[in-house]
Amino acid sequence: MRSAKAVFFDRDGTLNPDPGYINEPNKFEFYKGAKEALKNIYDIGYKIFVITNQSGVGRGLVKEDVLEEIHQKLVRELEAEGVEVAGVYYCPHHPGEKCNCRKPSPEMVRIAVREHGIDVARSFFIGDKRSDIETGKRAGCKTILVKTGEEGDNSKVEDCYPDYVISNIEEAVEILREAANGEAEM
Ligand SMILES: [Mg+2]
Ligand SMILES: [Zn+2]
Known about the structure:
The protein has about 190 residues and is α/β, with parallel strands linked by helices. The chain has six helices and six strands. The protein starts with 5 loop residues before the first strand and ends with a helix. The structure holds magnesium ion (MG) and zinc ion.
């Protein structure tokens, strides 16, 4: 059997508004339309992953057990829509720690790929920052820049040369559907 294809999503600014360091579950809310978009993407046949830098932990602003509760809420809300999240991977480190997992390192994607048998060449990384695009490229994925996050108004962010630029996550559905259809014809 051929290995699975996946979409790796950044979290803040991609799936949910980013008001700063989200430090309790009730501060986490999906963007309007995001859950439906993920449901469509899941139904096309992509495994769903979240790959997120959470330096708030290393900065002492977010407790790690609360971060895990926030991610449980994320997973449960998607489950209620019929979406199975294959994995949530986060880097808890302060940038000064010089860890090897913080994006733009592709390490978290590589771990997910290993643990879940993902074919990166058929997979996508979607995020709102250039560090997400760099992560996706270094991991060997196709990349989609979504302009909902804090860099949404910064036209220079596109200098990171993503494969696609979209204005919200719903617009990813057609791109991913076409990619999947293209494979079926091969
Ligand atoms: Mg982001
Ligand atoms: Zn790290």
